[in-house]
């Protein structure tokens, strides 16, 4: 197109057709510039802002921006407009008329301007360039908005909260956050949205349409912004650096979330439990704890989830997919987090440390559970018997006591178990496998806890203390056995005198060194077993009790 003609276009539109200027470069007949110059001299100024116009009618239209006058009304919905051509275009929304069609894809539009902008998607034309950063745009309005990023200009303000925006069109959308208005409804599921763009994007969830394609790997996306973010995986671009620590991010949203680590800001507050969050998506997920909402459903088994990535991980149970592989032993996992935890078994890394006792753990969840040993917290309650537990899995296993359910079956002998870990231990009986080894003497065990108990024979550690006599034991089973022995001694001491069983070692009614007397005591029990059983079964016990008490 001729540069001369572009510059004079608005003036030329007002010249009668027969007198219109012809381009010199085309060697065609052209009218002299005098008429154009005369037209340009006649300008109409706006008294409010000083802007000039070549025609009075254009000035009158412009003045309505200052006065707020909108004289053209829609007889369908009552909406008003500054210009009649805006009303004409608006009415097509009601009538459904779209007279402007794209000759590339046959898509139709209400106005010619929309068609012109749309065609640039096919041609790739971006005629509007930013003179600061060189970025190009297909629409002049987009360039104007873009330039405000460089200037920081935000000329449009919300009259409710005062928030400023760089684009006037953002104001009505923003105000809906105050009013709660969501005027765009999905005709498939009934969900409502604040913007038409959000509705269009949402509908693709139903239709499965993914119009934006990556030219590197061919992956498709619902939104163009998703494609832009995706391409940075291939390019490695991370254009958003943190000005505090220098870390860079591929997305601005990730940078904003990251900065809250430094500032400690948690702007999202739950009005039910008063818990605060640094990220909106974490807040959204949290709210579902209170509402019980689980909007993500497995189309294979029907199980529902409150978070989308949990559904994604769950589907791998059905597909058997395990995309995360250990580069040390080759073991595969369905979750990246499980691979990270697994690798610590090779490295011995225990990054999560208890600040109370110093004990370290390879998993944060294990540390959280461990801390309850110190605090005594038992947040998981059985709704049948009221018993409380420090760990959710223990509660699940406990409930099987009430229901009698044993959902884990051995495929070798058919024996059933209430816990998966019990089944795993049981299977070692059939396989003879002893995967747990003592790193001191090399002895092998079929159960992991047995290694811990065994190692104490090397270290001499006796962590389990009897609260009756204060003597420590290697493991809980020995402690329980000891307490049972003490209980038995107490029973026999109430029934018989010390002369009957001198090995009891009772002094002033207190137990004196039960461990030393244990062997002798058991021998006495064996010798007098018949008399004891007779005495215990006989009504004479009552008499003996009475006699003892009187003595």
From TrEMBL:
GO CC annotation: nucleus
Matches recorded under Gene3D superfamilies: Classic Zinc Finger (3.30.160.60)
Annotated compartments: Nucleus
GO biological process terms held by the UniProt record: regulation of gene expression
All residue ranges annotated as the C2H2-type domain in the record: 44-71, 72-99, 100-127, 128-155, 156-183, 184-211, 212-239, 240-267, 268-295, 296-323, 324-351, 352-379, 380-407, 408-435, 436-463
InterPro entries registered for this protein in UniProt: Zinc_finger, Znf_C2H2_sf, Znf_C2H2_type
Keyword Magnesium on entry: no
Record-level Gene Ontology MF annotations: double-stranded DNA binding; zinc ion binding
Keywords for the protein's UniProt record, in alphabetical order: DNA-binding, Isopeptide bond, Metal-binding, Nucleus, Repeat, Transcription, Transcription regulation, Ubl conjugation, Zinc, Zinc-finger
Family annotation (PANTHER family): GASTRULA ZINC FINGER PROTEIN XLCGF49.1-LIKE-RELATED, PR DOMAIN ZINC FINGER PROTEIN
Record-given protein name: Zinc finger protein OZF-like
Organism name: Octopus sinensis (East Asian common octopus)
